[in-house]
What does this fold into?
Amino acid sequence: MEKQAHHEHDHDHNQQNTTHEHDHTHGPGHHHGPNNKVGLMIAFIITTGIMLLEFFGGLVTGSLALLSDSGHMLSDSTALALSLVAMWFAAKPASPNKSYGYLRFEILVALLNGVTLFVIAGFIIWEAYHRLFEPPMVQSGSMILIAFIGLIANILSAWFLMRKGDVKDNINIRSAYLHVLSDALGSLGAILAGLLMLLFSWYVADPIISVIVALLILKSAWGVIRWAVHILMEGTPGTIDAEKVKQTLMQIQGVKDVHDLHIWTVTSGRDSLTCHLVVDEQADSQEILKTAIYTIEETYKISHITIQIETTDFQHTSCD
It folds into this structure.
């Protein structure tokens, strides 16, 4: 006889659901604390203000470094706004036709943020290429002052996101954080270009520094895109070794085989696991079930576990 178990990490460890029919719906995205929203909102306000300052400052001074950074900050303001919208969507309850709710909207926004960074970096490099041959005159003194204000603002935004948000484990917050950090790099590059022009009248420094900053932006963007695509492709979380998980289950007394093992990330901070356990016919299947769930939960910190218990006389066909 087949037995299934559905287990939520948010519930008490001793509460095990071992019925044949299971509700796989997920509640609101409560893994996002209100601090994430506060950090994003503060960063959004700061970034938008500095974007306007650098845009008009770039027009007045004629600096590509400032204009490119303001364009980059425009994408960042949009990214931060989208991240806030994503958190609102993620908090919406699940429904029968969306059993995981809207948690994946976060990952889609992170992917969009990464792609946007690529586009912005491409525009910067294209404009810089044309300026390399005929670098225009730039009001370097005003440029340095505006870029310095931008740098301080970006550092403040990054600080608030680190203090208030989950930069390490939440891909949505992390992508927003990388946007802000790349803004800081842009401001730093503009300051360096301004100093070179002020001291040595080396106006080609403006497009050169812009290209260097664009390449650094591309590196950060690629990391976010890879991470988001991996999640959307139902890849195994980078912190979990699927083979080790299988060996852990095989070590449970009474377990003869493990198949159809799947581990994936629904959204940041919420990993899921499903598998089939073939057990000895004489073994206590319910005890094995409880042991397996508790072991996986405690060892690998997986929040949602579904295990199907089978015996050698009946095994469900593998999806492979």
